[in-house]
Amino acid sequence: MEKFLRFDGKNVVVTGGSGGIGEKICTLFAEKGARVIIADIRADEAEIIEFYQTKGFELFYQPMDVSDPESVRAGAASIREKYGGADILVTAAGVGAVHPALDYPDEAWQRVLSINLNGTFYCAREFARHMIEKGKGSMICISSIAALKALRPETNISYGVSKAAVTHLCKLLASEWTEYNIRINAVAPGYTATGALTKMQNYLPLWLEQIPMHRLLEPLEIAQAVLFLASDAASGITGTQLMVDGGYSAW
Q: Which partner for 90 in 9, 14, 189, 200 could form a disulfide, CB atoms 3.0-4.6 Å apart?
């Protein structure tokens, strides 16, 4: 099995790879021999690269605003020119905004969908061109348990809608691009111990009651699922969503 989970000579592009779950995805792919390119909107390139260097990894950085199709086109072209294009794409860039539906700001609604849904499609479309040239490829889109069921007690309607759309987008693209030998799958994390949850710690007791494992997921657990789906060990898997949620969706 270990030989299937090596990525030597592979270029892995990770959007939103500068923190949270994306950070762990980047380090795990690097540990397995991949050249990892972080595509992110953050401007502090030197700081991001130094952060990974202190962990013993050499990663590369490409400025990219996933919500802007022109930025994605330019970033994808730069990655093709510098590194020879993407073999694997992981779309981990994502945001949420908690508001009651009746008071949901238009700006928040548009921003969440622009990054989570539009950004996933723009990146899939542009990096698919690299994979078609190479004759194969794999994409893993980070979805969420919010794609499957209404979460409570938080009111994050745009997030749930966007992630449900991302999951279905994976199915549609997987069906359309199988002729190009491109596999596309989604990973749906449950409540995961990242900095994004620190602002919502008051919900933690209720969350733990709803999770059969009665704990938060670790970012590494999400990254391992991504690694598996990207690997040749998952060569027969496309158009599906893998729940990594501690059993949350089973209840």
A: 14
